[in-house]
Amino acid sequence: MAHKQLIIPIFIPFGGCPHQCVFCDQKGISSVKALPEPLEAARQIELYLSTWKGKGAKEAAFYGGSFTGLPEKMQKDYLEAALPFIREGRLDSIRVSTRPDYIDAQRAAFLLNHGVRTVELGVQSMDEKVLALSGRGHGPEATEAAVAALRKAGLKTGLQFMPGLPGDTIETILDTTQRIIALEPDFVRVYPSLVLKGTALHRMYLGGRYTPWSLEEMTEACVQVKRLLDEAGVPVIRMGLQPGKELEESIAAGPYHPSFRQLVEALATSKN
Ligand code: SF4
């Protein structure tokens, strides 16, 4: 039997982030308002490890911002806060999340040399127009280059995908899914686009310039997305944002359901 893995989340809201993607309210999602000190990250790791009784692999995960966009000294300080736990054999590895255009061969080597074994890329879409309308500041080729650099360095690669962004249609969503499959990621997370209060997307929605997908439409679309990923053997480790009071209070509109994955799986089963 596989043992449950421990992932210790350390949120760095907007850390290293120069862009304001229209959908993003990273502070609201992670419920941490400022960058934590590296010492704070070490305390968090210690706290999780000292109370964890499981036998699975243990990983510290720097989530929330664009880790590799932080000044290198700051990245080093965070990673070095986690490294002593790896040396002591109490922690197995580190994962970080970042933007595709912030990964190249040099950054991938730096991460590998500092204990990182998994990188999650916020791909969001592989459609040029959808990426532009969402204010991402990079095109699909940045994702292709980043995945190639991570693979060459021997890092595990997870891709995050947000169906339902401005300009998305069922065709662009399925095309993005196929292009993600072609990149052979180690895993995928699917986060249907939601309108969070105070974001640019919220203003677009209020001004009639963005119509969120209904829960029904998004569930239907994700049945197709999941089927393609399943057929290709790509593990889907999450569908839908982690439910929580703060997230629920910040949602202005969009296809939210606390058990979104179960909805998708139930609909897929009923269609079989
Ligand atoms: S999605 Fe990432 S890159 Fe975009 S604004 Fe949010 S933290 Fe920054």
Strand content: 15-25%
N- to C-terminal distance: 29 Å
CATH topology: TIM Barrel
Structural class: alpha/beta
CATH class equals: Alpha Beta
State the CATH superfamily name: Aldolase class I
Strand order in space, largest sheet: 1-2-3-4-5-6-8
Classify the helix fraction into a percent range: 40-55%
What string gives the helices and strands in order?
EHHEHEHEHHEHEEHHEHEH
Number of domains: 1
Name the overall outline. Answer: globular
Poorly predicted regions are 28-32
Q: What is the mean predicted local confidence, pLDDT? A: 93
Ligands in the model, by name, code or SMILES, are: iron/sulfur cluster
Q: List the total number of helices.
A: 11
Please tell me how large the radius of gyration is: 18 Å
Number of strands: 9
CATH architecture field: Alpha-Beta Barrel
Largest sheet, strands/sense/barrel = 7 strands, parallel
Oligomer: single chain
Describe the structure.
This protein has one domain: Aldolase class I (TIM Barrel, Alpha-Beta Barrel), CATH 3.20.20.70. It is built from 11 helices and 9 strands. A 7-stranded parallel β-sheet has the order 1-2-3-4-5-6-8. A two-stranded antiparallel ribbon has the order 7-9. It is an alpha/beta fold and 272 residues long. It binds iron/sulfur cluster. Iron/sulfur cluster binds next to loops.
List keywords for this structure.
272 residues, alpha/beta, TIM Barrel, seven-stranded parallel beta sheet, two-stranded antiparallel sheet, 17% strand, binds iron/sulfur cluster
Give the SSE map.
Layout: E1 6-11, H1 26-30, H2 38-51, E2 58-63, H3 72-87, E3 93-98, H4 105-113, E4 116-124, H5 128-133, H6 140-153, E5 156-161, H7 170-182, E6 187-190, E7 195-196, H8 200-206, H9 215-231, E8 236-239, H10 245-250, E9 251-253, H11 260-271
Parallel strand pairs: 1-2, 2-3, 3-4, 4-5, 5-6, 6-8
Antiparallel strand pairs: 7-9
The protein binds iron/sulfur cluster.
